[in-house]
Amino acid sequence: MKKLSVAMVRSELILIGYWRRKAGRGWPADDRWPSPEDFVDSSWDANERDQVADYLGRGFVVRACMGFSPCRMCGRANGALELSDGVYVWPEGLKHYVDDHDVRLPEPFTSHVLASIEAFETAGRDESWWRSFVVREPHASNEESFVQRADLDMDSGRNATGWRDAEGNRIDA
Questions:
Q1: What domain range includes position 87?
Q2: How far is CA 103 from CA 114, 119, 154, 156, in A?
Q3: Residue 60 falls within a domain, yes or no?
Q4: Which one of 74, 107, 112, 165 counts the least CB within 10 Å of its CB?
């Protein structure tokens, strides 16, 4: 029996991207969080910013909330999900701050993002596990697209049974 490994997610995710709320709309001010204005950096390298923004948009959904959070800078409806990469967790709208307001997230996070991207781009590819699931005979539901017939095996010169597709092309097993 093959043992499958499971990717581990931290038992406690690192929260990023929740911002100070000003009083209004029936809500009290909440100054326990940083202000996004303190992170604006229009000189941030555009390529790096785009990579971080793209990464933020590709997280796994870990929570859905009942309403949209407003952007603390422009007021637009800014998402209702929490996303994660298994290490950090952030609100869906964090991508908007990076894309539209030049918010540059702290260096430990951007380094994590860039290292994660690099690790995926340079990782080798092990095809053996997936290829181990190749079925050598057609499934009953696909039988109409295959024709089994005896044919001369051109390599050995002996008569062999082979699978051919509907056009008569040999499918090597």
A1: 14-122
A2: 16, 25, 65, 67
A3: yes
A4: 107
